[in-house]
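task queued by scheduler; priority normal; single chain, no ligands, no partner chains; default sampling; output format set to structure tokens
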Amino acid sequence: MNSFDWLSHLGIPQVDNFDIVEVKFKGGRKEYFRNVDYLSLNTGDPVVVDVPSGHHIGYVSLQGELVRLQMQKRKIRNDDNITRIYRLANEKDIEKWEEAKNREIPTLYRCKQIVDELGLQMKMSDVEYQADNSKATFYYSAEDRVDFRELIKVLAGEFKIRVEMRQISLRQEAGRLGGIGVCGRELCCSTWLVDFKNVTTSAARYQNLSLNPSKLSGQCGRLKCCLNYELDTYMDAIKDIPSIDRPLQTEQGPAKLQKTDIFRKLMWFSYNNDNDWHSITCERVKEIQAINEKGLKVFNLQVDKADELEDLAAQSTRELELLDKKFAKKKKKKKKRSKDTRPSEAEQKPVSQQGQGSKSNRPNEESNPSDISRRPRADFQEKNPSSNPQPNRENRRKKKPRSRPNPNQKPNNFNQQGAEPKNTPSAQGENPQEQKKRKFPPRRNQNPNKGSNE
């Protein structure tokens, strides 16, 4: 069973193959031709089509049921005026067409010179040669009607070809030349736009656009066609916006309209043309207008009476108090103690233990003076307040000042029991004169009795 028979068996309607094809030519010009021979065509295929004065070559741009919709949109009838497609273009047809296209630019420059010589008020835009090199179409734009009969005679005798003059508008001229718009895309008139509707400045006013001609005009010098795209949406949204014919009357002064946000339905007013703008809704504007029609004034744009203003202030104060309570309940995060902030051993030790250090726990400072650098700095400063970190052995000994002995007086160095003390010079076995002379300990490699012998 064929696929079409299977679809008809299921009750699904079959799509009719529309035999008219849309073909695109130079400058975005599109025309419709009938595929009489039912050629297998694809989009972009070059085809040779029938024209009133010979044949021409174009590219297939659209086919199928979409062509029917385009013809209905452009109001083109499906009658005998639609010519046929001859065949797919071969290499010979394309080579001949390329030769004809190479003549277009020199012809355009020469045509502009002739127009200047004749003094015609017209602007030459483009020239298009037919694929069979039998006809040339000259496109021009002009503000007024131009008598170009003399121009046709000169061009026909100059280029030995049949000439056709076709006037186009500035929008069509921009579509034929092409370009990139301010939106960053290719111009709509050169890609898909076919019908050029009239664009007025009221479209910009409805959309709250600044009436700056440099921003509203396109490359053709006319208003942009895209101003009409969103105009219907704005017109529907404006229905809910109240019209402001005169300022709103308030006790603060007359409030004049400064700005309107159509989609958010907000309106900004200012008192006596001040720089401070106040936004209110469209419903509030309608309420103020109804009060003003009765000959009354409202207190300000927000409230009708002064009592309501006090209620609003109390309500705002209550909201602030609730916010304060909300944020006051939050607990403060505890800061983590870093490793570098740990207390030292000296800080951990109690103060009473630092002052009660026994001699048994401390190193023997007198016996081992080399361990002075190992002691704590604070302890070392208490023991030795002098700036010298290694004091001399003689400086550590604290001697009492001695007086010279009297030879006539008995030394009173004996206690009551007659025992001689240990610290006396006799007990140590040394002469008091020698002890007085020796103030420093003996140095290495030096005789200790050298000073006494001398």
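post-processing summary
- The first helix runs from residue 3 to 10.
- The longest strand covers residues 54-63.
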